[in-house]
Amino acid sequence: MNRMIALFGALGAAARYVISLAVPSDAFPMATLIVNIAGCFVLQLIFTWVRERSGLPEHIVTGMSTGLIGAFTTFSTFSCDNAALFLSGQLGLLALNAGVSLIGGLAAALLGLWIGERLCGKGERAE
User: Fold this and answer.
1) Which of 21, 60, 73, 127 could be bridged to 56 by S-S, CB 3.0 to 4.6 A?
2) Are 70 and 9 in contact (CB under 8 A)?
3) Spatial separation of the C-alpha atoms in residues 8 and 30, rounded to whole Å
């Protein structure tokens, strides 16, 4: 299992780095916002759909969730970005970043849950 976490962690960290290069984040930490919201969606989808329906061994699913998404998302960078916005007096951007991150992350997780349940055949109305 440790190998899977390390392997998927390397992939997640590399994906995070590529996004940080591709998305300009000079005035606003957009790359961090994108990876964290996307990570909330994908993690919930893994827990809802992949774990239940993929038939993948548990060590692969753990590698995907803990390794891939754990390395892809970043609470520490989110916190440092907000501290920098605070120290530079950009309180409006700090509030925007924190609010969009929290509400967007929750919305993304709920969307991942909703899609995952539908892929599993749950949540459909009986006729």
Assistant:
1) 60
2) yes
3) 24
Number of neighbouring beta carbons within 10 Å of residue 14: 12
Quick: pLDDT tens for 78-96: 999 999 999 999 999 999 9
> Which candidate, 115, 114, 42, 36, places its Cα nearest to that of 82?
36
Helix spans in the chain (H): 2-22, 30-45, 51-53, 58-62, 70-72, 75-87, 91-119
5-48 pLDDT, tens per residue?
999 999 999 999 999 999 998 889 999 999 999 999 999 999 99
Tokens of 110: 């709920």
In angstroms, the CA 123 to CA 44 distance is 16
**CB neighbour class for 67 (10 Å; exposed up to 12, middle 13-18, buried from 19):** buried
Whether pTM > 0.85 for this model: the answer is: yes
